[in-house]
Amino acid sequence: APRTHRRRRPFADDEILLMRLVAIIVRRTDPKSPLPAMYALVETGMTPGETSNFRSNDLDDPNNPTLVLAAGNRVQNARFLPLDRFAARILVSAVAQAHQRGLEPHETVIYRGTKNAPGSPAATASVQGVLNRFLKQLGLHQADVSASSIRKWRLEQVYIAQGVQAALTHAGYGSATEDQDRLWLHLDVVAPLTTTTTEPDEDEDFLN
Fold first, then answer.
1. Neighbour tally for 178: CB within 10 Å
2. How far apart are CA 133 and CA 205, in angstroms?
3. Cβ atoms of 126 and 120 closer than 8 Å
4. Which of 29, 53, 77, 112 sits in a 20 to 30 Å window from 197, CA-based?
5. What tens digit of pLDDT does each residue of 48-63 get?
6. How far is Cα 7 from Cα 131, in angstroms, rounded to an integer?
7. Which of 159, 143, 166, 161 is nearest to 191 (CA)?
């Protein structure tokens, strides 16, 4: 059952821990599965569409990465996102598997579609579908969460630890009022009175 009456919320820490554990198990039992890397990139702060653009040369170091490049889209700016130990290990493993398949550094690691370009609506829908099935298998696909709640958890962590501007930058947003309003919709906080009451579609950026 949903934990809250909110339309969409960030996942809670215990839910993130569960997803991390399962992602690690899948990485070990099915090394060719794209799921662990998809999850790790979204948890790091990418949108599902951005994960489909992930290439091995987007890591700052192939063996011990600390940053990954998020491609951006019409809503988000391209940006480098810091990697924690969990995400770094998952992505190094995914890149190693891709190289075993003969993948070139400029080719996408996770998205393997041949008809639709990475970052396209079809590619985004493909990634979103994988993540939604993952949530359903874990019993986490409830009315108050979606695949976007994974990224919202990260944005909430950055906001709590570093403040508004850091969260905006992490999300790929600018400092305009509209961007700030978009951020408040991702976070489990009340928007400050200095922002407008206009509410853009909170999931719009997850469809690009």
1. 13
2. 20
3. no
4. 77
5. 999 999 999 999 998 9
6. 18
7. 159
